[in-house]
Amino acid sequence: MSDSGGPDVTQELRLPWDDDPDDLYEHAPCGYLTTLPDGTIVKVNQTFLAWTGYTRAELVGHRRFRDLLSSGGQIFHETHYAPLLRMQDEVRELAFDVVCADRSTLATLVNSVLARGPANEPRAIRTTVFNATDRRKYEKELLYARKQAEAAERRVKVLQGIVADLAAAPTEAEVAEAVVRAPEPAFDAASSSIYLIDEERDLIVAVASTDPTTGNWDDMPRSSKRAVARVAERGDLHVVGSIGEARQHFPDLVDSMRKSGRNTVVLLPLTTGPTDEQAGTETLGVLAFSFTGERKLSDGELRVVRLLGQQAGQALDRARLYDDARLREERATFLAETTRELDELHRLMPRARRLVDRVVPQIADWAQLRLAVGTPGILEDAGAPPPAADLLAETEQRATGACVPVFPAPGDPLGCVVLPLTARGRVLGTLSLRMVPDRRGVEAERAFLIDLADRAGLALENARLYEQERQIARTLQRSLLAGELPHGDPRFALEAHYQAAGRDLEVGGDWFDAFLITKDRLAVVVGDVVGRGIEAATSMGQLRSAIRALAGEPVGPAKLIEGLDRFVERVHNGHMATVAYAEIDLVAGELTYTCAGHMPPLLQPPVGPPEFLLRGRSAPLGSKAGDTRRTEQRVRLPAGSRLLLFTDGLIERRNRPLDKGFEVLSREFARRRDAPMQGLTGGLADMLVSRDHTDDVCLLCVSLGTEERLERSLGADRAHIALLRADLRAWLVGHGVEPDCRDPVLLACSEAVANAIEHGYRDNPFGTIDVVATVTTDAVEVRVTDHGVWRGAVADVARGRGLQLIRESMDQVMFDRSDGTTVIMRRSREGR
Amino acid sequence: MTDQWVSFSKVGDAELVSLTGEIDLANSGEIGKAIVGRIKESGKVLIDLTTVSFLDSAGVRLLDALVGDLLGHGARTRLVVGERGAARMTLTLCAFREDVLTTDLERAAADLK
């Protein structure tokens, strides 16, 4: 007994029956073989014979152990078993497949011991053979399971990679690219292709493939009988295991499977959710992948395939939303930019032009804007080629008639969108667009176009209103400026000029006025109201009227401006307007002036240089911060003086200091001291104001008193004859010369000047002609001098008639050719 | 361009050319062209000068040429000039043909009937 009280195992227990050693050898639970050192079997037990099916006679003395092994086993026997045994005298647990009598193999594990003789020579090999069939099967299963696990892991890795790619793919095209690359690494597929469903066109379109030489790439309607369309409709995974199966279920696959050597095709719908939850699941496309050789997919693989379908479907769904969102964003940007760009232009025509220029080519390849504004209306187009005019006209009529946008139906021969443009309940016209057809987003696109039409309509309506307002302001201003200036009084002459700001700008607030306060007191005014448009024109009208109402003999300029200040306060209009106001006493020859924030008047005395009248200054009307103590200044105004009132637009230029502007104006005014009054102010403006001026300009010139002598110097230009005549007529009237004398003198003077131009300066357009007229109580004398070359063409009929007229009109005509040619003409004031 | 000095209308079957303002060397050429362009084919032409405020020798030259042309191809013509005024004065001083001058538009029209 052992210490523990259990049986003592160091001694054999006695069995309850007799154990025969022979029987134990023959029927042991393992095979026994005894062989000679060369392997020849000399003894074998029954167990081995039973396992292998050989008889003892077949083996003993006839076969070596190695002869019983499979060919691989024989090699192993030679390379491992035999050398090991010789070196170690034993080998353990070597696996051999024993070939049985019926050629089946028996998996075994072999232990051998080499028995040696007294001289250490090998004598026999004793071998036990264990049946390892079950163990081998188990090992195989283990191996298979490991392989399966590895494959599943690889698939999962591939799938994880794909999912990451899908998450990063922002567009439908990129999702398709990522998905189509999945089946090859994941399932060892030979190639794959992806098809997407275009819901709006009801088509299925192949978008990507790893081997574009396989398969059918035509678009197919969703109702097609083709396998892809069927699977898309059903939304179920289909595995076509063989060409036979294909022939049975999807005959359209047979050809392409044959051609590309494919035996198995998997058709996987790409769905927005698990396919077993039909509700709310949408199929967005189909992934097709195929294998060379018939390939069975394990349940695990099929699960992964389905998962791929869902992941891809969800990524597609997201990308579609993203694509839509991006398109919407692009459209929103376009709308915002269009609105802004249209706002930059105020006038209608430029706005209309800009609209079509923005639309083409950004969203359309042809566009036409038709506006029923004015006659004959506005028509702008861009792009080419234009569609059929009759179809377009008909559609435009339909759109404006019903006031609804017309979108082209599929196959519409016109193929244009026609949008009615409306604003404030009024149809302005139409915007017609021919757009490149887009696969998707028709609804969103329509909403976008309607939005575009709304904005365009409003922008164009605003421009139309702007034009209208501008026109009203122009008309108002013109009516205020067009009032007749006093004339016919020989003691003074007035000449005014108004020039609107450069093209496309609103009317400004410059104005002039002149009126007689009494028969001997003349008021002249030039002013500038802040702002533009109707408001400025209105303020200007109010101030102009207020000045006329306030002016009176005992008032004077300073008091008048004080009155204007009160007026401005009361009507809340015209604040910061500037005014130069002057009263001229026609009897005393005295000027009283004041400048409320305005440019100083420029006075040209009969002799000497012109001077700016810089006194009598105070702040603009209604000014809060400026000095509003109104003052006035008196200066003598000798006969022959000219006074110029003007607004800042005349001399202000961005690239020139104001001092320089004053200087240039003074010089130009002096240079024209002998120029006829008519056209003087216009000429100054032409000279001084740049072509692209941004401010309006207003000038008023008054010439004082009747000159004793009329002295004029004019260019050799036919157009100047009329200007001279105007001055001469006014001068003659001023001196009380009666029409009976006046008209012949005007005629003779005109003829003499015409002669000088036509003949004296025939070859010199830059020559000047001096005219001096004097009057006495009984006669008028006019001298016309030129420095040209007279040719002795006395026979010239035209010249003859001119000279005849001079002689007929005047009492005395003389020619002095000592310095150029002077015609001296006299006529008595008495009737003849 | 010449609209401020010349306008055209009809009196019965006669072409009426109305001149106004100052006609001188500077504008007579243009005015002449405008008139000739209009009355080339006319058989009866009235030229109204009653509101002309100035007429110089170039204007007379123009009228002379016009009347000469019209009479030359058998057209009938009259100039309407006031009793007094600048145009009458110049035409008188030039000794223009009295037979084509009348003082009254209606009488001139009747003359051409």
Verbal overview:
The complex is a heterodimer of chains A (832) and B (113). By secondary structure, chain A is of the alpha+beta class. Chain A has 5 domains: 21-131, PAS domain (Beta-Lactamase, 2-Layer Sandwich); 145-325, Beta-Lactamase (2-Layer Sandwich); 361-473, GAF domain (Beta-Lactamase), CATH 3.30.450.40; 483-705, PPM-type phosphatase domain (Phosphatase 2c, domain 1, 4-Layer Sandwich); 710-828, Heat Shock Protein 90 (2-Layer Sandwich), CATH 3.30.565. In chain A, the strands form 6 sheets. Chain A has a 6-stranded antiparallel β-sheet. In chain A, strands 17, 18, 19, 20, 23 and 24 form a 6-stranded mixed β-sheet that branches. The termini of chain B are far apart. In chain B, helix 1 runs parallel beside helix 2 (57-72). The model of chain B has no long low-confidence stretch (mean pLDDT 89). A 5-stranded mixed β-sheet of chain B has the order 1-2-3-4-5, sandwiched between helices. The longest helix of chain B has 16 residues, at 57-72. In chain B, helix 2 (57-72) links the parallel strand 3 (44-55) and strand 4. Chain B has 113 residues and is α/β, with parallel strands linked by helices. Chain B has helices at 28-39, 57-72, 86-93, 105-112, and strands at residues 6-11, 14-23, 44-55, 76-80, 101-102. The chains are: A alpha+beta (832), B alpha/beta (113). Chain A binds chain B through residues 718-719, 721-722, 725, 743-744, 746-747, 750-751, 754, 757-758, 798, 801-802, 804-805, 808-809, and chain B through 22, 24-26, 54, 56-58, 60-61, 86, 89-90, 93-94.
